[in-house]
Design goal:
Blueprint: H1 22-27, H2 30-64, H3 74-92, H4 96-109
Helix pairs in contact: 3-4
Length: 133
């Protein structure tokens, strides 16, 4: 676990995905497309709510089993980021698709509501060179 300011360094997101051949999708009547979209969204929210509920219950189960929950300190998180962020850029530069995926994730992590990464963090391990894709 991260510190209270960053409860989790990584949290899986298990929202529903439905993949359909585009020609087959376009062949469906509009009202059927709308039903499928609504059902997928509803299932996604139901699944998300269930996972959140189970996550809360899991903490008590961990405690009952004597599992020690360790929260990383802010200093640990800063050290982790210092090494991890340059690695992200390194791996992203190895492949065009990886670069595209990382650019999307980086933009998301920099948004105001997430705020996990700031431009000032996007430097090499020594903190001197700005990292770019």
């Amino acid at each position: 676990m991260g510190p209270p300011t960053t409860p989790c360094l990584h949290q899986p997101v298990d929202l529903m995905d439905l993949t359909v051949s585009l020609p087959k999708w376009k062949a469906l009547p509009k009202h059927i497309q709308e039903v499928v979209i609504a059902a997928t969204r509803q299932h996604s929210w139901d699944q998300y709510a269930y996972i959140q509920k189970e996550d809360v219950a899991a903490w008590d189960k961990f405690k009952e089993k004597g599992v020690q929950i360790i929260r990383l300190s802010e200093a640990d998180i800063q050290k982790f980021r210092r090494y991890a962020i340059p690695m992200w850029f390194n791996w992203a530069k190895r492949d065009a698709l990886a670069r595209e995926a990382f650019a999307s994730q980086l933009a998301f992590m920099k948004t105001f509501n997430v705020g996990y990464v700031t431009d000032s963090m996007l430097v090499d391990i020594d903190g001197k060179t700005k990292l770019t894709l």
